[in-house]
DNA sequence: CTGTTACGGTAACAGATGTTATGAGTACGG
DNA sequence: CCGTACTCATAACATCTGTTACCGTAACAG
C-alpha cells in the first residue's frame, strides 16, 4: 500500500511553503514553481500531492486556521480568568511577534485571494464564524451580565479591531510595532469595560 | 500639440477598470488584458498611457486614495460638530453601500499587492499616515481634554476597527451587513466616550 | 488641401504559468 | 530476490503574461 512518504507531513511542508512565498514575495509571485522552490522540491511533488493549485491554496488556508485554533485553545486553557483569556486570545490575533506577523501578511493575502474564488470564500466564512463564536463566548464569560446583543456587537468590534490592527501592521510594521498594537488592544478592552 | 484625448480622463477610466477587475475577479485575474477589456479598449491604449503595469496599479491606488480624501473632506466640512464629523468620516471607511463595499475589496487587494512591491508599500504608508493624522485631529477636536497619547491610541484603535470591519465585510457581506457595521462603529465610539 | 504628428489598434515576442505525460528510482510484499 | 506499486523529478504542452514593434487613421498647422 503506502510507502515511506508521510502524507500529512508533506502537505504541511508544502502549505508552509505557500505561507513563506505569500509573506515574502506576495500573492503575485505565489506560483507553483515558487512554492516548490520554497519547499525544496519540484512541481512534480506538488502536483503529486495536490490535484491542482487551488487545492494547495485551500489546504494552506485551512492549516493556517487550525494552527491559530490550537494556539488559541492553549491560551484559553491556561488563562487565569475569562478576561485574561479574552485578552490573550485577541492578542495572538495581532502581529506581535515574528510568527504572528507572518501570519497576518498571509491572512491578508488569502483574504484578497478570496475574491473570485468561491471555495476560499466559503472557507473564510466558516473559519470566521468559528472565530466569532469563540470571541462571543469569551466576551459573554467576561461580562456575564450583558444582554446578548451587546455581547455580539462588542465581539464583532473587538474582532474587527484586532484584524484591522494586524492588517495595518502587516503593511507598515514600523508604524504599528507590537507596543502600539498592545496599547490599541488594552485601550479598546478598557473602553468596553472588559 | 495634443489631440482630442483627455489624458487625466483616460487615466481615471483605466484606473476605474483596475478597481472593477480587482473587485469583481480578484487580484489573480488583474491582468493588462482584463483591465483593457473592462475599460473597453485594447492593451495598446493601456501601454500608451502608462509606461508599464506597475505604474497603472500605482495610479489606480493613488486615485482611490484621492477619491476617499475628497469624500471625507466633504463630510467633514458639512458636519454639525467634531463628534459628528468623526462619526461620518469613520463611517465612510466601512463597507456601508455599494460604492464603499467595492472600495473595501479594492483596498484589501492593494494591501495584499503591497507585499513585495516597495512602491505600493510606500504609497500605502503615505496614505495611511494622512489618514491617521486626520482621525487623530478629529478625535482631539471631539475630546479636547484628552492628553495626546490617549488621542493617538484611540485614533489608532478606531482606524483599526474601521479597516477591519471593512475587510471582514468585503469577504463576507452577509455576516457584516451595513447595520452590523454601523452598530460596531456606534458601540466603539460610545465605549471610548466619543 | 496637404504634410505631419499624435493616437491607438494589431500582432508579435520571450518568458512564465498551470497542468499533463513520461520515466527513472526505490521500498515493500511475495 | 523479484516484481510491483508508489514516489517524484524531468520535460513537454498549451495558454497566458507583460512588453514591444509596427502601422493604419485622423486631426491639426500651414
End-to-end distance of chain A: 55 Å
In total, the number of strands of chain A is 0
What would the average pLDDT of chain A be, to the nearest integer?
Answer: 96
| Name given to the CATH homologous superfamily of chain A | Tetracycline Repressor, domain 2
N-to-C series of helices and strands of chain A: HHHHHHHHH
Oligomer: homodimer
CATH level 1 name of chain A: Mainly Alpha
Protein architecture, described:
The structure is a homodimer of 194-residue chains. The first copy, chain A, is mainly α and 194 residues long. The first copy, chain A, has a single domain (7-191), classed as Tetracycline Repressor, domain 2 (Orthogonal Bundle). Chain A is 77% helix and 0% strand. Chain A starts with 6 loop residues before the first helix and ends with a helix. Chains A and B meet through helix 1, helix 6, helix 7, helix 8 and helix 9 of A and helix 1, helix 6, helix 7, helix 8 and helix 9 of B. Chain A binds a DNA duplex (30 and 30 nucleotides) through residues 1-5, 31-33, 41-45, 47-48, 52-53.
Record keyword descriptors for this entry.
Tetracycline Repressor, domain 2, mainly alpha, 77% helix, DNA-binding, 194 residues, homodimer, 9 helices
Short description:
2 copies of one chain form a homodimer. Chain A has helices at residues 7-24, 32-39, 43-49, 53-78, 82-91, 98-114, 118-142, 148-171, 178-191.
Helix and strand arrangement:
The structure is a homodimer of 194-residue chains.
Chain A: H1 7-24, H2 32-39, H3 43-49, H4 53-78, H5 82-91, H6 98-114, H7 118-142, H8 148-171, H9 178-191
The structure holds a DNA duplex (30 and 30 nucleotides).
